[in-house]
Amino acid sequence: MPSLLTRRALLLAARTAPALPRASIRALTAPPGHHFFGYYGIPPWNKSQTHLVCLETGFQGRLPKPGETARVGLVDAVRGGFEAFAETLAWNLQQGAMLHWNPLAPDREVLFNDRRDGQIITAVVDAASGRRRELPRAIAAVGHTGRYGLCIDYGRQGRMRKVVGYAAAEDPYANDPAPERDGIWRMDLQSGASKLLVSIAEVYARLRRHPLIDGKRHMFFQHAVFNPSDTRFLFLARVFTDPPRAELESAMFTASVDGSDLREAVPFGRGVSHFEWRNDREIIATFRPPGGREKLHMLFQDGRQDYKVLGPELLTSDGHCSVSPDQQWMVTDQNVAATLEKRLLLYRLPDGPG
Length: 354
Description:
Order of helices and strands: HEEEEEEEEEEHEEHEEEEEEEEEEE
Shape: globular
């Protein structure tokens, strides 16, 4: 419960903050299909905001099986309804197929992961004509200029954490705790040429001082994201703790787009889980601050570890944070334990930290 002083401060902030338009809610799709987009932080809207891209499936209560497809389609922002233009064999219920509008054709082309001849690849499809080309690796992120994508091995990710993997995807390094030829790849989105930027072996060696990095425990990478100017990117390096309560433990790293200047942005052991670049220098992430036991929303500069708590009286738990283009607002969520619901929260960043 906030103190009286805090409640007065919140009331004053509510009175002085810019008025927000009243939200209206309406359904854009209908049963019997299930419609969903994917992971937070990636916009489903095309540039002109006339359509959303999403997936349609016939179920949502179990993991996909090998050979089961999801339909890729558009939803009209005015009329609603779902119109498919493609299918994919590489998808899951948490992150979809990593759908991205192509920045070089932001009202027409969609990139998404698919499966071809046993390999997970990227499909680039014109939503109007159905014209398709393919790239040899699976995307985890697309740069804002459309030049590069960041790629990870979904076979290893699926072996370590099935909810974010793809059915039938294989890990070629299943016996190696820290492979030298697996990690974050950069792929040219025109030619398909790729380069390994940061290997799991390199990060594993950096973290060897931590007792969980014991030479036996397997590491995997997740959640690669470019900064707004595509000059740097961040990602999580993760392992599981011991059973019976095997839980994820993580560190956040950042690097330049050529793989140089690798930095440990959030040290291993603080449970970093969700994040967003506020701008090219600042990052917001949820993790346990030094000396803390609960995950909070933290603001810091890349490479500085100058952590500041955002909204300590309001943002009291983990959440999926996204930042508005003007850097003034953050939307995040909180779990409502009693009902298993999510509460959406809007936070004005100039009012914080502290």
